[in-house]
Specification:
- By secondary structure, the chain is of the alpha+beta class.
- Among the domains are: about 190 residues, no CATH class; about 210 residues, no CATH class.
- Helix 2 runs antiparallel to helix 21.
- Its main location: membrane.
- It is found in: Cell membrane.
- One of its GO terms (cellular component) is plasma membrane.
- This is Putative ABC transport system permease protein.
């Protein structure tokens, strides 16, 4: 019997090729979307899942006076790890990590610069389960000057030779000798910690920094006892801070714990998060999952609609089978079996779609997602089970509807067959297009917001600026580099700074001597070359710029932004910002005679996700710079870069030349938003495509069912236009109903999403109107083709056919 059902199902699919193709393509597209999103979500949720200890990251909420708003930061103080372990039985162990950036190493004549390095406590491998291929994980970072390399780094330095025990020179301003004490497996791609080399923290011995309560410059991880009540432990932290800091200091901090597996995907609101590879907002993975389900539902609706619409052509078959004694459960089984068979055929097609889609998704998201069909049998089983479920759910209503036909009526050719449930099909069409319109609106707003962030004037220029990293070997040669570069007409301006715009700038405590008591507050800060404001075209609204020839400017002159000026004047309403000029201002280590010399117009030195914070700029040449900024002639960019490189190689031969356009750096700031926008756009396009497939199928069946009516109308003189309107109007009405449902839902979703941005677009009515109009046009284009074809058919043929 089962074999006969399969034969009938297969013959039905072959007989109704268009119907089968539409259903298979729609289902395959929906399945492909679900599989790709499932793989993406699975990959995102796998981050740090291979560690077995109960690890939490210690984060701070900083609430310093002068901040625009409290900030969650992924930083902590050096003494916190050991004191937490000593004072709280819940804390079993701790380790601290600090990123160290590029690490230039030399072994013999061979020089290699590791892209990512870090300092780490000796307990690092006690908490984390990264695998050592050689060396003792309990002692690898125990002694000063210990270095653990990844396999890839060891291969670069030593080739096939054994690296363990070898001594390497870290060549910087002061040469440091490091001993290789361990070789680590290459870091898994789904680890938020990524490095090529680890140096033992006790190599870096500065008691002044290590005993400092208030200095936030590293990340602390804690291993907690199983079953620890996290909320109860966090409630003890205020008393802990007050025990180690003075009352005023303690008020400025809160501590909170974050599970290790939340670090990658639940840190969107955490700044100064320097150790978080491929950071991504986990809320977006939930959004992707939701949209993928919508797309699959749209595909399933197609199946239900087309199957029930096709009922008229199968009515006599069902009548004959019932008259021959077929029971309703048998018909149920047959039709659901056909649905499941179609689902599995669609699955095969969907796997081909996935193979085409994955490389693009990987490129877009910068992930390494594979399709683990054979490596993970559980995944294959899940996909197969999902296919069966989709087939059954999609086939339930058509099976119930088709098996309900009464043989006496259908064998007499009752005209009611196939029309009874037309209202329900209309509801499904409305659901389809409501979902599609919702996604169209979401895509338009996401695109508009992204374009707004990318194109908004940040208050400084970033076009045609090339940035080159400086270190302790290269920044002493900055003046020589600057002069050599400016000697070529391809280079228009040169400056330097200790941090790059577009990053979380370091914050520090500052002191302001106004008319009243001395105020102490926090501010972002950046050390700059005197030409910095000129190169970046940052406007001054009061005072003057730094001046190279003013010796007093070196370390004693500050330019503050408008936000900081307003903060300093908040106790003096009505006073102009010019009143701040000449006031004593500075921070730890800066001469008390330092003063404010200028007020800069506010500019977005971070992404538009964040409000503009207080900022002070100062020129302190003795403290060095970490980045060179070179403004070039954009018309001859390649020649300009070649000149920068040749100058660099001549003056700094011991360092490899690296560069990045500042525009590219800002594009990276919005990469996550760009990825979300593009993926949502793709899902929206696919949902529209599937909806159109269904609409096309319904239109063709409607035209088929009304072929005699159309023939009679044409004989009586109806025009082609009037017949097209007749067949199209019903579908357009359904789309209008869908618009009325989708618009309020989309408005709520978009307004909620935009709250994530400090600077955002307005919710414009024309986007909703445009999305609705687009949906109507798409529906008309889809339906009109079939309507015109039916209207142009010869009425003699349709009236003769019986």
């Amino acid at each position: 019997m089962l074999r006969n059902y399969l034969k009938i199902a297969w013959r039905n699919l072959k007989k109704n090729k268009l119907y089968s193709l539409i259903n298979m393509t729609g289902l395959a597209t929906g399945m492909a979307v679900c599989i790709v999103i499932m793989l993406f979500v699975s990959y995102e949720r796998s981050f740090d899942g291979f560690h077995t200890k109960n690890i939490y990251r210690l984060n701070e909420v900083q609430k310093f006076e002068g901040m625009v708003a409290p900030q969650n930061v992924a930083l902590s103080m050096f003494p916190m790890g050991p004191t937490l372990q000593q004072e709280f039985p819940e804390v079993i162990n701790f380790t601290r990590v600090r990123p160290n950036g590029k690490l230039p190493l030399q072994f013999g004549e061979k020089r290699v610069t590791l892209a990512h390095s870090a300092w780490a406590d000796s307990t690092f491998f006690e908490l984390f389960d990264f695998q050592l291929v050689s060396g003792d994980r309990t002692t690898a970072l125990h002694e000063p000057n210990s270095l653990v390399l990844t396999e890839r780094s060891a291969q670069l330095l030593f080739g096939a030779d054994d690296a363990l025990g070898k001594t390497i020179a870290h060549y910087g301003q002061d040469t440091l000798l490091l001993t290789v004490t361990g070789i680590l497996e290459n870091m898994p791609a789904n680890s938020h910690l990524q490095f090529d080399g680890l140096i033992s923290f006790n190599t870096f011995a500065d008691p002044r920094l290590m005993g400092n309560w208030g200095g936030n410059w590293l990340t602390t991880y804690l291993e907690l006892a199983a079953g620890t009540d996290i909320a109860a432990l966090e409630k003890k932290f205020p008393a802990y801070l007050q025990a180690h800091m003075n009352e005023e200091q303690a008020k400025a901090y809160e501590l909170f714990l974050q599970p290790l597996q939340d670090v990658h995907a639940r840190s969107a609101d955490i700044t100064h998060d320097y150790l978080n590879h491929a950071k991504f907002d986990g809320n977006y993975t939930s959004i992707f999952s939701f949209i993928a389900i919508i797309v699959l539902v749209i595909a399933a609706i197609n199946f239900v609609n087309l199957s029930s619409a096709k009922a008229a052509s199968r009515a006599k078959e069902i009548g004959v089978r019932k008259a021959a004694g077929a029971k309703r459960p048998q018909l149920y089984l047959q039709f659901i079996g056909e649905s499941v068979l179609l689902s599995f055929l669609a699955l095969l097609l969907s796997l081909a779609f996935v193979a085409l889609l994955l490389p693009y998704v990987n490129q877009l998201s910068q992930r390494q997602i594979g399709m683990p069909l054979w490596s993970r049998p559980g995944f294959l089983l899940l996909v197969a089970a999902g296919t069966v479920v989709v087939g059954i759910l999609s086939g339930l209503y058509p099976a119930a509807y088709l098996s309900s036909f009464q043989p006496t009526k259908v064998l007499k050719g009752s005209p009611e067959t196939g029309r009874k449930k037309f209202g329900f099909r209309n509801v499904l069409v409305v659901v389809q297009f409501s979902s599609a319109i919702f996604l169209i609106i979401a895509t338009l707003f996401a695109t508009q917001q992204l374009r707004y962030m990318q194109r908004s004037d940040p208050g400084f220029t970033r076009e045609q600026i090339v940035t080159v990293p400086l270190d302790d070997k290269s920044y002493p040669k900055y003046e020589a580099l600057k002069q050599q570069l400016l000697s070529n007409a391809l280079i228009t301006q040169v400056t330097a700074s200790q941090q790059r715009l577009g990053n979380n700038l370091h914050q520090t405590g500052v002191r302001f001597h106004g008319e009243g008591p001395v105020r102490e507050l926090a501010s972002s800060q950046i050390i700059v070359d005197p030409d910095f404001l000129n190169v970046y075209q940052i406007q001054l609204i009061a005072g003057r710029d730094f001046h190279q020839d003013y010796a007093s400017d070196n370390g004693k002159a500050f330019i503050i932004n408008e936000t900081l000026a307003k903060e300093l004047l908040k106790d003096y309403p009505g006073k102009p910002v010019e009143s701040l000029l000449g006031r004593h201002f500075g921070f730890g280590g800066v001469d008390s005679t330092a003063q404010i010399v200028g007020i800069a117009k506010d500019f977005n030195f971070n992404s538009l996700h964040h409000k503009i914070e207080t900022l002070c700029l100062f020129n302190q040449r003795d403290w060095g710079f970490s980045e060179l900024s070179v403004k070039i002639n954009g018309a001859r960019a390649s020649d300009a870069i070649a000149h920068i490189q040749s100058t660099w190689n001549k003056l700094v031969p011991e360092r490899d030349f690296e560069y990045q356009f500042l525009d590219d750096h800002f594009a990276e700031l919005y990469r996550s938003d760009s990825t979300v926008s593009e993926i949502v756009g793709i899902l929206t396009a696919l949902s529209i495509f599937i909806s159109c497939l269904g609409l096309f199928g319904l239109a063709s069946f409607t035209a088929e069912q009304r072929v005699k009516e159309i023939g009679i109308r044409k004989v009586l003189g109806a025009s082609v236009g009037s017949i097209v309107r007749l067949l199209s109007t019903g579908f357009v009405k359904l789309v209008l109903v869908a618009i009325l449902i989708a618009v309020p839902l989309a408005w709520w979703a978009v307004s909620t999403w935009l709250q994530n941005f400090a600077y955002r677009i307005d919710i414009a009515w024309w986007i909703f109107a445009g999305a609705g109009l687009l949906a109507i046009i798409i529906a008309l284009l889809t339906v009109s083709g079939q309507a015109i074809r039916a209207a142009l058919a010869n009425p003699v043929d349709s009236l003769r056919d019986e």
